[in-house]
Design a protein that fits this description.
The protein is mostly helical and 128 residues long. The protein contains five helices and no strands. About 19% of the residues have low confidence.
Amino acid sequence: MPKMSQLAAELDELRHCGEVLIGISDTLREMFSGGDDMTVTQETPAEKPKGKAKAEKTAPAKEPEPEKPAEPEKKLTLADVRAVLAEKSRAGFTEEVKALIAKHGADRLSEVPETEYAALLADAEVLG
């Protein structure tokens, strides 16, 4: 029996590591998708002297950028919550993070209702 419980614990830890990696990959995807827009706007000033049509194309691209960061601040996503909790877990608060998820009525982070994200993040900030 002890081997089975040890195996179960290791499988739980592997599942948790997988969730952390998914959170990291989601965060990186968001960062790099925003980075592509920045690269385009940095390249276009060098192209502006070549033609007015290219300068006109950059103006609409610059306007949506400020709107995108404003929206995630209003509505939290699973990726945002996962990134914060993964950071707390790496800082040594793994058990506390699991307890917070359970406190908000779920066994896994993906099962936490979106309405609980803000409260979950507020509880996570207290961890340290």
